[in-house]
Fold:
Amino acid sequence: MGGVRGRRGPPPLVLALLVLLGGGPIGQTHCGCPGGCDCDPESALCRGGAGLPRGLPPRLATLSLVRRHIEVLGEGSFRDTPALQLLLITAGHLGTIGDGAFSGLVLLEYLFIEDNDVGSIAPTALRGLRGLLYLSLANNRLETLPKGLFQGLETLTQLDLRGNPFQCNCRLRWVVSWLGSVTIPTEPGRCHGPPQHQGTPLEQLQPRDFQCLSSELRPFQSLPFSSLAAEPFAMGGHPGLALAQPFNGACALLEWDQLAGRFRAPTIINGTAPVACHPLPLGGSLVLVMAQLSGGSSVWRRSGGPGSRFVRLQALGGGRLRRPHAVASARLGGHWYLGVADSSKGGTSTLFRWGGRGFYPHQALRPWHRDTHLEFLELGGSPALVLCSGTRRPLVYRWSGGAFAPHTDIPHVPDVYAAKHFRLRGHVFLCLTRFLGDAKVMRWEGSMFREVQQVPARGSMVFQPLAVGGQRYVLLGNDYAPSRVYRLGPGGHLEPIQELLAPSPRSFAPISVGHRHFLVVSSFKGATQIYRHVTIDLGA
Ligand SMILES: *[C@@H]1O[C@H](CO)[C@@H](O)[C@H](O)[C@H]1NC(C)=O
Structure:
């Protein structure tokens, strides 16, 4: 609000009020003075009673309503007394000050609604008070003030808001900004809550003390195919995402269609039943590993820039891979490695090394365990690998002498389907999905993982930490219940914030288009879903 006058000094009406309330000179009852009131042509004092007094002298300049019970002040409440210069409502009850409650009172200079139990006030309650100098809403029950309440009060020179149980949350942020922008004397009072601001004088708060940004994932697009792995990558600064479509027998690359303002997912490789299409930018081109349940797995490379054809480089693993289930890659000691978890009864999870024109077997990990997932990470500054299987506890390997050596297993969790890690403030956390049991978050304690949080889950095959639009989340996919979005708290604690209705989710992956951020949710049984990440300012 611009143009507020900076005039200071005590309100000149205090004396006037003392006279008025002292009851001395008034008491002279005129005709046209309602019961319970003392009037003279210019002033009236009404004590007790309910509602607004009717039939007051029309040229009234001051009106005091003491110990009156009034439910609502609404538009036109003071229509019959347009010459009021001072209005005092005190020591009674006034539930709501509604829209335009004082409209028409263009001469009003002093408005005191104090000690009066006021619980709510409309954003436009003070509309039309063109000459108001002094406003007091002190000692009421106001927990907040609606945005824009003081708009148009260009002549205000003093404001008193003391004694209200203000909740200093996002809804009150505008008051704090406004107080910082005006120069008039104000008594804004103190915060009654929330706990972190309790007792703090409003004038000591800054707009930045309010955490008002909230994020949400909103349904954006549904792609008409089911999918398993959705894996993000970045090439030349551009984010991309590869999708495995087992029922279409294809790997697809998610693309933003500028004209349509939507995504599409053209096939890049035809196969039989890919469970993973693992993208890996290598030496300036995009390599893609297609892991399939049948028909053999293979490695492909894009022949040129975006949009160009993928050419087949090699069959992966020969006879070694029988039933690949998950693929991951990492750069270790100057080389790129690919890990493939094999879930067949007699299969062996295998580590491959990039040799320039293909991946070549480097190390057989433990055999015979129906492995479901592997995750590369760093523990204590050196490379490690967590291998999960449906029949044994997850095994933690550490990199040593050019190969992975078993280091420890993760206790108390015999049935981990997948493990995904995130780092926070120097700590390494693992999110463990268990198909029937609750999901768990564990933290590396130097020599082993220890549980820090358990999250209820039923039929979960994905528990994925990720960042969308600069915010960190962990998403828990559920087959028999809605999936959950957790915000990652500062200490690594997960706070539930939203549910997603995507059916049978198998992976969650972020992708950005310019300043727009999206989350792709692959679905084993239904359509692949894309959500848009939106940020809402709760203080706006
Ligand atoms: C995949 O197969 C379809 C149908 O045969 C064909 O039209 C399409 O060009 C193929 N895509 C690629 C990338 O080879």
